[in-house]
Amino acid sequence: MRRRDLLRMAVLGAPALRASCPSDYRALVCVMMAGGNDGNNMLVPIASAEGDPLISYSQYAKARGGLAVPLESVVRISAGNGDQFGLHGGLKELGELYNQRKNVAVLANVGPLAEPLTRAEYRGGKGMVPGGLYSHGGQQAEWQAMAGAAFGGVEGCEATEIPLPVWLGGGNGAGLRGGGDSPRMTGVTNLLRVDDGLTMVRGANTLTEVGLAQSRMLEAALDGVEPLTTAFPNTPLGRQLARAARMIQARGTLGVKRQIFLAAIGGFDTHERQLTDQAAALAQVSGAMAAFYQATVEMGVGDQVVTFTASEFGRTLQPCGGGTLGSDHGWGSHHLIVGDAVKGGDVYGKYPAMALDGPDDATGRGVWIPTTATAQYGAALGRWFGMSEEALAEAFPNFESFAGGAPGFLASS
Fold first, then answer.
1. Distance between CA 118 and CA 127 in Å, rounded?
2. How many DSSP H helices and E strands does the chain contain?
3. pLDDT at residue 305, as a whole number
4. 95 vs 322, residue with greater confidence
5. d(CA 369, CA 361)
6. Distance of alpha carbon 165 from alpha carbon 186, whole angstroms
7. For the chain, first and last CA: distance in Å?
8. Between vectors from CA 190 to CA 12 and to CA 169, what angle results, nearest 5°?
9. Among 29, 72, 288, 383, which residue has the fewest nearby CB atoms (within 10 Å)?
């Protein structure tokens, strides 16, 4: 077996050796904002082109109270229909890409939906509601399924799915580098090979050992990669996306045409100290995603890599009680898509009315019923990725039941 084939098996598994991928290369990179990002402060309404008083900064500030970000602190952007918004000031770099390069798009009020749902149906208990709503675990699983495993079905091609924070990202396995003959790696391998007679334990140990082997093989592939000149922020997310860039750079050695990466950053469960904590977290997102975009340009794949955000849910427009200046778990929220294949400089979807107990509010606290489903979000990304219509229908079986189908924020979606 050739070294390249061995590397492909380590990263993709044996089926990849039989696959014949399309001639072009494409990658999807999901940035998971764990904890539930408050989209109300990430995309602030300033003025509606049609003069809608419920989509205005004054209405937003009235409903948000002490949680409102100052108007002078936001990065002003315009939607294609003339609506005026402000990106949170922590998103300075992405705001500049939105305004200058027009390769950043915003998808408004997106979230898990089992079927199209109105406020009247939700309040009357007549509509079908997604399971695990408002829970971190249930909704993270929903979003991560959309962001990762669903994107198969590229004709004749296996896609690499790489969760960066774990073994391949240098997280839990960081102390095990140094090759198969390092003392620590040898010790761990020996422990994993102990036969204790328990079938489930043996199975788990085998999977862990395979993961370690994959990590070592990937390290071997990355050893031959020339360093990029793009400077990444020395932050947890910056290091993860720098790692993803190196894996993209090694795509020829790995012999892959489709790659999927999942990076994660915490700090978004802002029941208190939201103004300071969210600002710091969004600044990390903006700096890392902007650097990653520049790296794709340096590698000549700026139009072949799409980076997008996810988060398990949005947060309530109304602040928490008790003067803690935070917000509670919500539902629909706003997300960012970055890359030269993005039809950017625009806000897609329907922005919710900033009114407590208003037309988009599920609970009376500013919990937005999504007007774009995660299935539609995923279908748009999957179609660009090269998924067949049959594969899209299997991965996102209900997306065609939503008006408008997949949103058109990508050049070929």
1. 8
2. 13, 13
3. 98
4. 95
5. 6
6. 23
7. 39
8. 40
9. 72
The dihedral sign for the CA sequence 72, 76, 79, 82: positive
**Rounded to whole angstroms, what are the CA distances from 29 to 26, 306, 370, 378?**
10, 6, 23, 12
Q: pTM of the entire structure?
A: 0.85
Separation of alpha carbons 230 and 228, rounded Å: 5
- And the tokens for 63? 């409903």
User: In Å, what is the CA distance from 268 to each residue of 148, 149, 277, 299?
Assistant: 21, 24, 8, 31
- Residues ≥6 apart with Cβ < 8 Å to 410: 306, 337, 341, 342, 343, 380, 381, 383, 384
Report whether pLDDT(197) > 70: no
225-250 confidence digits (pLDDT tens)? 889 999 999 999 999 999 999 999 99
Domain boundaries, the chain: 3-401
- Cβ atoms 379, 392 nearer than 8 A: yes
Which among 42, 34, 18 is positioned nearest to 95, based on CA atoms?
A: 42
* Fold of the CATH domain 3-401: Alkaline Phosphatase, subunit A (3.40.720)
Query: What letter represents residue 382's amino acid?
Result: G
Q: DSSP class of residue 351?
A: P
CA atoms within 13 A on the CB side of 59: 18
Q: Do 237 and 284 contact (CB within 8 A), yes or no?
A: yes
Measure the CA–CA gap between 103 and 129, rounded to whole angstroms: 34
Closest CA to 276 of 243, 227, 213, 324: 324
CA 39, CA 332: separation in Å to the nearest integer? 8
**Nearest Cα to 56, choosing from 98, 84, 82?**
84
Rounded (10°) angle between helices 3-12 and 199-223: 130
CA angle, corner 307, sides to 176 and 317, nearest 5?
Answer: 105
Contacts of 207 (CB under 8 A, 6+ apart): none
Alpha helices (H) along 156-273: 183-192, 199-223, 236-249, 251-254
